[in-house]
Amino acid sequence: MEYRNLGNSGLKVSVICLGAMTFTEKGWRTAGTMDFSEIKRVVDYALDNGINFFDTADIYAFGESEELLGKALGNKKNDVIIATKVRGVMDEKDPNNRGLSRYHIFRSVDNSLKRLGRDYIDLYQLHWWDNHTPIEETLEALNDLIRMGKIRYIGISDFAGWQIARSVSIQEMKNYTKFVSAQMYYSLLGRDIEFEVVPACEALGLGILAWSPLAGGFLTGKYSKDSPHPEDSRYSRMERPFLRFDFEKGYFIIDELKKIAEKYNATVSQVALNWVKSKSFISSVIIGVRSLEQLKDNLGCVRWDLSQEDVEYLDQITQSERPYPQWFLDLFADL
Ligand SMILES: NC(=O)c1ccc[n+]([C@@H]2O[C@H](COP(=O)([O-])OP(=O)(O)OC[C@H]3O[C@@H](n4cnc5c(N)ncnc54)[C@H](OP(=O)(O)O)[C@@H]3O)[C@@H](O)[C@H]2O)c1
C-alpha cells in the first residue's frame, strides 16, 4: 500500500480510503447495503491490506454509518485515520440541527465522537457550504475544537474554488489552523474539479480526496450498452442517477477501459482507480463497496500502475472543453 501526505500536512494516509456510505441503506437507500458480518469482513480485509484511512459522515444513515464503522474497527479504531463530516440535515424539524453554525458544529462533533466511540476525530470535514452561516463563525468554531483536542485536522467537501480560497484566506488572516483536504467528486466521467478546485487546492496546500472514483460503480465493467441495468446494481436501483454524466460517452470509455484492462491482466475497476490515483493532486481515493468481493477486486489497483502513455490516452478521451475564463487565460499564459 502506498501512503501519501494529506495535503500539506505531515499525516500519511493510504492512497485508498474506504468509504462507509454504503455500510447501511437508511438515508440513501439506493446506494445499497451490507449486513454487519460483511461490513466486518470488509473492514478487516481493508486493515489487513494496509488501508489506514476511513471516511464517513454524520448524515450517512443519520449516524448509523459512524456507529457501524466504529464497531467494525473495534480495538483498531485508535490506530487508523477516521474522517467524518458535518453540515447535513440531521433533523427535518429542528432548524438548528443542520448547517455550519457554531451551535451545530459543537453539538455534532460530540454526537459523532459518541457514535464512533472515539475521544477525537482525525479529519473533520465541512460536508458542503452553508449559505445561511457566516464562514467566519464556522472557521472560528473549527479552530476552537482543534484547540480543545476534539478534532485534529480539518477539511472541506464539495466547495467551489472561490469558497476554498475565501475560507483559507480568512484562516491565514486570523492565524487559524488551515484546511488540509478537499473531498470532491472525481472520476474519468467527472473531471470538472480540474478547472477551478484543483488549482485552488494546489495553490493553498489542500490534498484532494476523490469520492465516487468509479462514478458510483458505472466504471466497473458490469454496465455496457447491451446491459445498461445489471441486476442488483446501484444504477438499476435508482430512478434517476445522482451523478451527472453522458451515458453514451460512458459506454465508449468502458469499452476502452476493457481493452486497457486486458493488457495488464487487470479489471476495469482497477484501471479506473489507477487513473485517479495517477494524479499528483490526489491524496487518497475514497472507494465504496457492497461486498468483500468488490473490495478485493478494487484493492488490486495498488499492485500495479498504468503506464504514462495509458494515463495520457485516458486523459485525452475523457477531457472536455476548458470553460471560460480558462481557455482565455491559456491564450496568454506565457506572455
Ligand atoms: N463528500 C461527498 O459529497 C460524498 C458523496 C458521495 C460519496 N462520498 C464518499 O465516497 C465514498 C465512495 O462513494 P461511492 O460508493 O459512490 O464510490 P464508487 O467507488 O464510485 O462506487 C461504489 C459502488 O460501485 C459498485 N462497485 C464497487 N466496486 C465494484 C466492483 N469491483 N465490481 C462491481 N461493482 C462495484 C458498488 O455498487 P453496487 O454493487 O450497488 O452497484 C459500490 O457500492 C462513500 O462511501 C463516501 O465516503 C462522499
Automatic annotation (TrEMBL):
Residues 16-317 form the NADP-dependent oxidoreductase domain. It holds the Pfam family Aldo_ket_red. InterPro entries: AKR, AKR_Detox_Biosynth, NAD(P)_OxRdtase_dom_sf, NADP_OxRdtase_dom. One of its GO terms (cellular component) is cytosol. GO terms for molecular function: oxidoreductase activity. Keywords: Oxidoreductase. SUPFAM superfamilies: NAD(P)-linked oxidoreductase. This is Predicted oxidoreductase. It comes from Persephonella hydrogeniphila.
